[in-house]
Amino acid sequence: MPVKEVGITVTEHLLREQRETPYATGAFTQLLNELIVAAKIIHREVSKAGLVDILGSTGSRNVYGEQVQKLDDFANHTIIRRVMHTGHVCAIASEEDADIVEVPQEYPRGPYILLIDPLDGSSNIDVNASIGTIFSIHRRLKDDGPVTLDEVLRKGSEQVAAGYFIYGSSTMLVYSTGKGVNGFTLNPGLGEFLLSHPNITMPERGKIYSVNEGNYAYWDEPVRRYVDYLKTPDPETSRPYTSRYIGTLVGDFHRNLLKGGIFMYPADRKDPKKPRGKLRLLFEAAPLAFIAEQAGGTASDGSRRILDLEPETLHDRVPLFIGSKDDVVTAEKFLSGEL
Ligand SMILES: O=P(O)(O)OC[C@H]1O[C@](O)(COP(=O)(O)O)[C@@H](O)[C@@H]1O
Ligand SMILES: [Mg+2]
Ligand SMILES: [Mg+2]
């Protein structure tokens, strides 16, 4: 592919990738275009959140026992409604839905399975901090018939594409189809996502660490020692690292993708119901691990590669160490006791 031209629309970029993909049918391009329309609708609501009745909780709880925010619900329904009719998906799995949402038999069905965290960073919705939407796309294993759980419980390494939208000072789309990572910024006047960050590569080592240190007391000793190490001055290794924590996974990951560094959500003993930490393997860790690796970074649960993990249930949680390769490797060495 020729050198990426900053400013081309995401649709132009998708069509170029499609032309380069021998067996492409255009289904993927159209599916992503529908996701983009859904994100524009969510962006519109987010940008006027304080003025419309979209802040606050719905009063109901999701499968994780978390309060569902109105914007979680709005984003979830907006995405499902947009892609359900495309004829390109056969099932959707969402962080906000206990079970797989299968495309009804009367609708045309397609080869893709879409997994979403419709609104990431729910605790930041009401306080006007960056929030996002995370997506992961798999190709189904069977040609037709009812979608079975094994077609959805797939290793992250089997994703055909993954990405996220970030609704921050600007609204961006960052995604990969396995051929590198590109970032697009929404030009509100044009209503188009334009290529703004071609071929994103993550620095090998960073100077930023991102973790909720409020959980320090509940971490295992090796995790504490690693975070203490990051805070111990040593100019040769750029320590102490700078601490940055937005509390929105997409926002913290995006910063480290561009600047380098490590984001961690370790397992902790805070809530016995969550021995594997807070973040979701299928809806959060696997799609961002796909992006991280495509940008030269890496992601692990502290010892194993996130993309190699076999999900057991739709709503598996996983400890997450993601970011610059050298930093995640160092974290793993602390967790294994090598350091
Ligand atoms: O408040 P905590 O415990 O630091 O957790 C923050 C983490 O939880 C999340 O908000 C979980 O995601 P959701 O908002 O999609 O539930 C992440 O975005 C973020 O990294
Ligand atoms: Mg999330
Ligand atoms: Mg969410």
List keywords for this structure.
D-Maltodextrin-Binding Protein, domain 2; 2 domains; metal-binding; 8-stranded mixed sheet; Fructose-1,6-Bisphosphatase, Chain A, domain 1; binds magnesium ion; magnesium; globular; EC 3.1.3.11; FBPase_class-1; alpha+beta; binds 1,6-di-O-phosphono-beta-D-fructofuranose; single chain; 339 residues; 8 helices; Fructose-1,6-bisphosphatase class 1; 5-stranded mixed sheet
The CATH topology of the largest domain comes to Fructose-1,6-Bisphosphatase, Chain A, domain 1
Tally of contiguous helical segments = 8
Structural class: alpha+beta
Summarize the helix and strand pattern as letters: HHEEHEEEEHEEEEEHEHEHEEH
Count of β-strands: 15
Query: Could you name the CATH class of the largest domain?
Result: Alpha Beta
Strand order across the largest sheet:
4-3-5-6-7-8-9-10
Q: Tell me about the biggest sheet? A: 8 strands, mixed
Task: Assign the CATH architecture of the largest domain.
Answer: 2-Layer Sandwich
Overall 3D form: globular
Helix share, percent: 25-40%
Radius of gyration: 19 Å
Say which CATH homologous superfamily of the largest domain is assigned.
Fructose-1,6-Bisphosphatase, subunit A, domain 1
Which molecules are bound besides the chains?
Answer: 1,6-di-O-phosphono-beta-D-fructofuranose, magnesium ion
Low-confidence stretches: none
Look at the structure and give the mean pLDDT: 95
Query: Alpha-carbon distance between the termini?
Result: 43 Å
Number of domains: 2
